[in-house]
Amino acid sequence: MNNVATDLRKTDSALECPQIPEDNVNSPYSIEALMNQTRKLARDYRQAMGKPLAVSNELAIYDAARLLGLDIVDDFDGGYDAVGRDAERKAQRYQIKARAIFDESKSGQRIGQVKMDKEWDAVLLIIMDDNYEPREIFEASRDVIKQALDEAGDSKRAKRGAMSVAKFKKIGNRVWAADEGTSD
Fold this sequence. Notes:
Structural class: alpha+beta
Order of helices and strands: HHEEEEEEHHEHEE
Helix content: 25-40%
Distance between the termini: 33 Å
Number of helices: 5
Number of domains: 1
Strand content: 15-25%
Oligomer: single chain
Strand order of the largest sheet: 1-2-3-5-6-8-9
Radius of gyration: 17 Å
Number of strands: 9
């Protein structure tokens, strides 16, 4: 796969992002089977070792593509992980962030750094349960995130593009929930 995403706003050329290939679910090496095994391994690792295995973002990228009709890009250095394929999200470039919530009572959970110095259109936050299964997906545009970080002022976290899960949920829109499917 050597496809590169093309910014459709700057050119008339077609979008050339790799799509998740058709899966043979019966194969132990299908993408879906591998992701399910990864979820189980991550859960078992956390139970055995007492700390999470760093795979939630890879799972989140897969889940976002599968659930929202996105194409995963090969070159993650571009500042975004996926590009919209369906009419509603066509050519939108997304950074994808993940957060597995193991204890709902703990406050102050944070998302990974938003790369404000890169080109992208929106950020998707995939909230996962303790089995690394997606529960909710929130979306916030670049402008909304920039405004929230600017309002945070000169804090070191804001300068790094860091934000709490609660803040992201507040400024973003929930676009998918496990118990509802796609929402707007």
